[in-house]
Amino acid sequence: MIFKKLHWTLKRHPFLYVTRFRLLSKNSNQAAIDSCCYNALNKKSDIPIFYHAVNSEIFNTGKPESDLMVVKQLVIWLVANSKVGPGLSEPSDKALETLLHGAGGVCSDMAQVFNNFCVINDIQVREWGTTSAPFNRANGGHSFNEVYIEELQKWVLVDPSWGVLFFNATGRPLSVIEVYESIRSGQSVVYDSFIPNQTISWKQVDTNYLNPDIIPFLICNYRNTIYDWYLKRARPLFPVFMIHFMVYVMGKSYHYKFPLDNYKKIFD
């Protein structure tokens, strides 16, 4: 128990958190992120076989015709069959297994698991995060996703941890950029969970999305096979932050793109 607490403290230490942003962050713009998509670097064949087996269970009665309904069914099943707990930092198949056995997993684990299911189901997906600027130790950030919905011909923010979508005043689902542009311009933004009997508190949404100190960033260049390979071989021997640093030094790391804000605001 003491070792687990020490491990968690090290993993969430503010110095490591801020250092990660110093190494990985890049200022960007909306045009530059148009082509960023998890599917471009992660093919169906890259996704562990365990995901394909679970996916057959999720859609055992057939798959909906619309992209949005596929996404909703995925999220509803994952939330119903998992239980949050300590962050995992495990290879993707182990992360899914742990989530489904109720032994742990935070928003970033759910977002990465969701990425892989979207690839299997031919849904374009990408992963976003938020942090506070300037850095606030009380807010450790949040991870969520954005999916391209073919029938709407647009990107739509979806939070797979809570089953939350955001809408404009006319009820149209919003993309990540649209959510933050609307918030910052004072336009009305509505949110709701599509998970049955799920109520999301305003405090949760304000802390992770609506607070004026929150800034979003897109996680780019994440290759599932690379991180699975290194985590499986080095995880028992080295702390997770050292494994990620090794991947960074070899030039194979993911990075963060900030399309709306100067990332240096984090360090003010």
Helix and strand topology:
Elements: H1 2-11, H2 14-24, E1 25-27, H3 30-33, H4 38-41, H5 49-58, H6 67-80, H7 92-100, H8 107-120, E2 125-132, E3 142-149, E4 154-158, E5 164-167, H9 176-184, E6 190-193, H10 202-210, E7 214-220, H11 224-234, H12 240-249, E8 255-258
Parallel strand pairs: 1-8
Antiparallel strand pairs: 2-3, 2-7, 3-4, 5-6, 7-8
Helix pairs in contact: 6-8, 7-8, 11-12
Summarize the structure.
This is Transglutaminase-like superfamily protein. The protein is α+β, with helices and mostly antiparallel strands.
Index terms:
12 helices, two-stranded antiparallel sheet, 268 residues, globular, six-stranded mixed beta sheet, 8 strands, Transglutaminase-like superfamily protein, Papain-like_cys_pep_sf, alpha+beta, Transglutaminase-like, 43% helix
Characterization of the model:
Pfam families: Transglut_core. The chain is of the alpha+beta class. The protein is built from twelve helices and eight strands. The chain has helices at 2-11, 14-24, 30-33, 38-41, 49-58, 67-80, 92-100, 107-120, 176-184, 202-210, 224-234, 240-249, and strands at 25-27, 125-132, 142-149, 154-158, 164-167, 190-193, 214-220, 255-258. A six-stranded mixed β-sheet has the order 1-8-7-2-3-4, sandwiched between helices. A hairpin with a 4-residue loop joins strand 3 and strand 4. Helix 7 crosses helix 8 and helix 11 (224-234) crosses helix 12. The longest helix has 14 residues, at 67-80. The radius of gyration is 18 Å and the shape is globular. It starts with a helix and ends in a 10-residue tail after the last strand. The relative contact order is 0.17.
